[in-house]
Amino acid sequence: MGIDHDRTAKLTTTPDKAGPDSELSGGEHGISRRDFLAQLGAAGVVVTSAPLAVAAEPAAGAPAAAAGHELHTTPVAVHLDVNSQEHALQLDARTTLLDCLRENLNLPGTKKGCDHGQCGACTVHVNGKRVNSCLSLAVMHEGDRITTIEG
Q: What is the pTM of this model?
């Protein structure tokens, strides 16, 4: 019934000698906590970036803009009645009424505030009703009577 001093010495000294990267600190499986966490982090990156890689690839028949090329659009003819003056313009179909008034018609009185329709700085009258011009496309107002602060 004696004490095996070799075994006791080995049990008491093993945790002190085992560093964070040694196999002894990982128990019986031979992997350390540091290695486990590194592998877990790498797996997380792979899992979360896989959908992004698939989304970045253009689908068959997708427009050229999805492939990273600039999309060129044909200008659209728009006739606007702004402050009782007729204007015939060639605009990109995505141009907001606010940008059309400020950039194409040189009417800077209508201000670009929040660009979300919350502040009201871009308000104009379209056929007598208030409209946030930052939320409205210029091509939607073909033939409408638009009044700005200058009018």
A: 0.53
